[in-house]
User: Which sequence fits this backbone?
């Protein structure tokens, strides 16, 4: 199979050889430090003269700021600065340009930043915050999408008088024709909840200026270059005077794609005090003052012919945007790709209203609108299958795309392992016996099995002018390699993958490879960690830089050894005979030979890899990614019919990943995604009522723990994508995407009750079961409020 | 300002009761309830903290005459593993084993669990089943003064007990359950691990020839305090565990509890799961 443009005949010969590192189980390079506590996270960093910053949040969903009195806070001993919107230049930012670092005039959600302090200790900062007196005039609160769209609803931002700042509409085919061609049609309204990332490391930043006004940020951004650019505008400092250093990042999952208000606020505090300032959120702040996944109401209609062929999908989505807009408002750009291209569908329409409310606002979160879309599509596929009398596996196989197809949205599936994923996941789960087999409930317990697939970008996504990544690589004395990559490590294991690729190409042990990936002063440009792109894009860039270095080494070694460059190879730190593998010279010696003799040259290479994808056209169509990822999940569940408890007994996942680079890493990625997905399906919900967050603690925001996780079987379908590094595609977001859909389908299989809301808490499940059984008490369950005693 | 200024660690009960005095200082055991509350700024940190863990008398499980005594500072992990408690303290050891996670169980004390007085305290219902008493000590004219309070009278509301400001909980006392009894206890949460009970229920039964001679029932998280189930007990007394009896008992249970709706669950749902859990326990007991 033909690979990237730099592939040579010698490469082709080597590909037949068993790789040393690719596909192997390689522990993450940062794991030992993290496991032993040596990793220096943001709150381990203490700079000389550093102050501690803290923010006063509005604590009100909708109000006009009448007056802010900071006198008492300023007078407190140890307080070095107190700032409000009056002290800074207010530059609008965010996707909707409706946010500012500190707020002036009106606050539109409880997390709106109103004032901030910098003080000698965190305690003094917290005390000072309490001394700031803000007088508000409360405004009517818009607590839900329905309230926002009601006649005469209060207007939250002037520029959207109807409270709908954005639409993301899409069409391919002709819905009327699709309806006419259908033998069966189903329609449901789905309600998807608000969940949040729960990064173990909470948000934070350190800002420091040098004497010439250059700014250094210790920032947890997952997109350091775009971030520098965005932030630069907000704080009025040119990007070339900003340096972003990333300490180890304790989780991203999309939460760090935006510039968040606390970041410019911290810069303003550092500027006001001329001292380094650190700001670090408490867990409670992390829960209510950082953005979440979008809650969505999705009305979907879809149809099929008698033989199972899908005909159309017609979707109307309403998103609770919250009181401000982050990049996350654009998630319908991704959900539309799922609606258009998860299985083959000739006619698809998406109609989206993004709606302002006075709730806390949403941002990007792993899957970016895809889990919500997949949940609805896959539920209806089961309904269609049932109406037609077809097995859920068969109807999916019937509509699974084949390699070479172009989807209705113009995405070209050069490789596509969807059918294989369906087969493999089902086989590993024991589908035939467990899905259709006799499943009479015993002792009030019912068992069932459900499946769902996913479609996602696998080779980046061209949503900016470039979707590229740069690499600078040097091979130095003794065969040590330093790779400077634009891509960031946020726990996903990308630096290990890059080290594997470079080690593979240069025939060096992984221990010889050092990855520099956390300092914009040193690393070349990259779009950032999003769109499941790092292994694919940064991996390709590293691969190409390493291949060029390999060429240089082989040329120099050939000259030294008086051999042909084609006849020799690099392996185990040595130059070896290409055929026999006999060691000829150490790589270190070749490099020293290059430095001290011959042409006096260095082995340093650079690469900028731009994937062969296209920006979408005005209709949002086009081949946005260099390749596409597929997968199928099968869940087996047990439902307690008396209490509504859903227990996941087993999970089987098969993913088309092109090629596995790090077996250990990819298993972890899939298992982690499934764990996160089970939480989304069963227990996680950030409850917001009247604009207030009710459960900003891990006591009442229920993450799944290891105790709840089932045995997970993972399988990888290696379709060898021609554009991927060694054939690999992205996997990052994918494993979360179909989990909730598979579980809800399994609950349906077990109980015959279709639940169109998440999470499937015992209380909700029991209410639906009772409703279906005709018990009257069904509707007395449901939404609850108030604070717990315990 | 919210900083603790004084940390005291007395070595004897006498010293402790004197230091506690009028009760301004915070009594600190494992800190697993106090710590999170201080961190969240829910309550102001006190100026003085008195750590009770250095007092030997407050630790461990022992026999005193007819009674089993569990020191206030005994850890959940110790209770969970203690052979005597596993044998004769009904549901107490298993309930202690369901508190939070191993890390918390290695810090959390039974005294803290009770004095914190959450309606969800996992050791409370098992102690109701044991008809246990708590012992409170304070400083008097001639040294330490002790009094005993039945567990059902100890709790007075969410977060409040009849413990007076100058009193310390020293131990829990109860008569071991005879072999002729059986106990069951369960808690319900939206996930099995790391879960504060949404509802919990326990039952102690002494049966002879298939007839219930003695029964005790207790509930957690379904009223302002952990609750004794008198009505359910009355339905059990002298009966055989037939389906109709079990139905009447669970109905009585649903009726005598007084749950609230909060962010964790609705009141009606709490009633349902209490009935289901208790029904299942009684069915098991009937089968045994
Ligand atoms: C993550 C987490 C999970 C939890 N899960 C559970 C759970 O599943 N089930 C459950 O029941 N609890 C749970 N808890 C609550 C807590 O762990 C228990 O209540 C624990 O037993 C408290 O004991 P402690 O020694 O840590 O109390 P502390 O925090 O030290 O004290 C608690 C209160 O009791 C007072 N006090 C302590 N000892 C005495 C004494 N001898 N005399 C007088 N007053 C005293 C203190 O002043 C304070 O008011 C959890 C807590 C956390 C943080």
Assistant:
């Amino acid at each position: 199979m033909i690979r990237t443009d730099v592939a040579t005949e010698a490469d082709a010969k080597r590909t037949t050889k068993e790789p040393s590192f690719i596909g192997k189980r390689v522990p993450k390079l940062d794991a030992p430090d993290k496991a032993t506590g040596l990793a220096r996270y943001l709150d381990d960093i203490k700079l000389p003269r550093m102050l501690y910053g803290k923010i006063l949040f509005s604590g009100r969903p909708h109000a006009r700021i009448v007056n802010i009195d900071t006198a008492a806070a300023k007078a407190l001993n140890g307080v070095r600065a107190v700032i409000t919107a009056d002290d800074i230049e207010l530059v609008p930012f965010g996707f909707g340009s409706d946010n500012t670092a500190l707020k002036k005039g009106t606050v539109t959600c409880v997390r709106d930043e109103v004032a901030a302090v910098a003080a000698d200790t965190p305690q003094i900062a917290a005390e000072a915050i309490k001394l700031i007196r803000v007088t508000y005039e409360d405004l009517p609160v818009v607590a839900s999408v329905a309230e926002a769209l009601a006649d005469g609803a209060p207007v939250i931002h002037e520029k959207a008088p109807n409270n709908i700042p954005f639409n993301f509409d899409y069409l391919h085919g002709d819905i009327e024709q699709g309806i006419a061609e259908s033998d069966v049609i189903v329609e449901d309204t789905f309600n998807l909840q608000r969940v949040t990332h729960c990064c173990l490391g909470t948000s934070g930043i350190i800002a420091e200026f040098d004497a010439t006004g250059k700014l250094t940020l210790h920032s947890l951004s997952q997109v350091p270059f775009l971030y520098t650019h965005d932030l630069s505008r907000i704080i009025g400092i040119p990007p070339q005077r900003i340096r972003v250093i990333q300490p180890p990042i304790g989780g991203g999952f999309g939460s760090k794609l935006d510039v968040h208000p606390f970041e410019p606020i911290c810069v303003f505090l550092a500027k006001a005090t001329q001292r380094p300032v650190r700001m670090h959120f408490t867990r409670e702040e992390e829960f209510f003052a950082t953005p979440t996944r979008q809650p969505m109401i999705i009305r979907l209609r879809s149809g099929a012919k008698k033989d199972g062929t899908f005909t159309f999908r017609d979707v109307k989505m309403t998103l609770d945007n919250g009181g401000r807009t982050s990049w996350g408002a654009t998630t319908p750009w991704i959900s539309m790709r799922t609606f258009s291209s998860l299985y083959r569908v000739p006619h698809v329409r998406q109609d989206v209203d993004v709606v302002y409310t006075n709730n806390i606002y949403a941002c990007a979160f792993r899957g970016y609108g895809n889990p919500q879309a997949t949940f609805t599509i896959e539920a209806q596929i089961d309904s269609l299958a049932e109406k037609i009398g077809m097995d859920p596996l068969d109807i999916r196989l019937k509509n699974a795309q084949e390699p070479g197809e172009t989807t209705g949205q113009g995405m070209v599936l050069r490789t596509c392992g969807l059918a294989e994923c369906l087969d493999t996941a089902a086989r590993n789960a024991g589908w035939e016996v467990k899905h259709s087999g006799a499943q009479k409930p015993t002792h009030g317990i019912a068992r069932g099995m459900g499946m769902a697939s996913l479609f996602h970008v696998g080779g980046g996504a061209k949503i900016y002018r470039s979707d590229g990544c740069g690499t600078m690589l040097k091979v130095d004395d003794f065969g040590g390699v330093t790779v400077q990559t634009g891509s960031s490590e946020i726990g996903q294991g990308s630096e290990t993958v890059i080290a594997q690729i470079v080690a593979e190409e240069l025939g060096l042990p992984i221990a010889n490879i050092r990855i520099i990936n956390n300092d914009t002063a040193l690393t070349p440009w990259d779009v950032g960690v999003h769109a499941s792109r790092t292994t694919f894009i940064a991996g390709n860039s590293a691969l190409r830089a390493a291949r060029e270095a390999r060429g240089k080494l082989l040329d120099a070694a050939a000259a030294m050894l008086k051999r042909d460059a084609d006849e020799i190879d690099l392996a185990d730190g040595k130059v070896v005979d290409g055929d026999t593998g006999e060691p000829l010279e150490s790589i270190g010696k070749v490099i020293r030979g290059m430095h001290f003799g011959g042409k006096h040259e260095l082995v340093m290479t650079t690469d900028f890899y731009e994937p062969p994808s296209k920006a979408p056209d005005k209709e949002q169509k086009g081949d946005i990614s260099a390749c596409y990822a597929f997968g199928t999940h099968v869940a087996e569940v047990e439902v307690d019919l008396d209490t509504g408890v859903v227990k996941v007994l087993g999970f089987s996942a098969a993913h088309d990943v092109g090629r596995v680079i790090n077996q250990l890493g990819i298993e972890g990625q899939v298992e982690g995604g499934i764990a996160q997905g089970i939480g989304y399906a069963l227990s996680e919900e950030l409850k917001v009522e009247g604009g207030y967050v009710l459960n900003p603690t891990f006591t009442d925001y229920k993450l799944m723990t290891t105790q709840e996780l089932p045995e997970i079987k993972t399988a990888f379908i290696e379709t060898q994508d021609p554009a991927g590094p060694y054939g690999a595609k992205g996997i990052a977001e994918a494993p979360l995407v179909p989990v909730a859909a598979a579980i809800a389908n399994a609950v349906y299989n077990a109980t015959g009750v279709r639940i169109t809301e998440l999470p499937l808490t015992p209380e909700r499940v029991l209410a639906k079961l009772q409703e279906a059984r005709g018990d009257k008490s069904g509707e007395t369950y449901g939404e609850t409020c108030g604070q717990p005693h315990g | 300002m919210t900083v603790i200024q004084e940390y005291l660690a007395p070595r004897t009960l006498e010293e402790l009761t004197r230091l506690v005095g009028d009760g301004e200082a915070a009594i600190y055991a494992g800190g697993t309830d106090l710590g999170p509350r201080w961190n969240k700024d829910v309550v102001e940190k006190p100026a003085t903290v008195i750590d009770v863990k250095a007092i030997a008398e407050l630790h461990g499980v022992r026999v005193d005459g007819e009674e089993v005594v569990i020191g206030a500072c005994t850890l959940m992990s110790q209770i969970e593993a203690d052979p005597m408690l596993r044998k004769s303290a009904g549901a107490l050891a298993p309930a202690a084993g369901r508190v939070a996670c191993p890390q918390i169980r290695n810090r959390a004390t039974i005294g803290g669990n009770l004095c914190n007085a959450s309606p969800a305290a996992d050791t409370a219902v098992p102690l109701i089943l044991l008809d246990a008493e708590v012992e409170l000590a304070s400083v008097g004219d001639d040294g330490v003064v002790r009094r005993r309070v039945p567990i059902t009278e100890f709790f007075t509301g969410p977060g409040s007990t009849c413990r007076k400001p100058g009193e310390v909980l020293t131990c829990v006392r109860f008569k071991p359950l005879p072999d002729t009894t059986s106990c069951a206890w369960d808690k319900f949460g939206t996930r099995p691990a790391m879960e504060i009970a949404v509802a919990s229920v326990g039952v102690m039964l002494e049966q002879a020839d298939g007839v219930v001679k003695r029964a005790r029932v207790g509930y957690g998280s379904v009223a302002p305090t952990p609750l004794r189930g008198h009505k359910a007990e009355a339905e059990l007394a002298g009966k055989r565990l037939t389906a109709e009896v079990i139905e009447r008992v669970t109905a009585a249970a649903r009726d005598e509890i007084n749950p609230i709706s909060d962010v964790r669950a609705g009141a009606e749902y709490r009633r349902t799961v209490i009935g289901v859990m208790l029904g299942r326990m009684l069915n098991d007991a009937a089968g045994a």
Q: What stands out?
A: The interface with chain A takes residues 1-3, 39-41, 101, 118-121, 158-159, 188, 190-194, 196-197, 221, 224, 260-266, 268-269, 272-273, 276 of chain B (CB under 8 Å). The first strand of chain B starts at residue 6 and ends at 8.
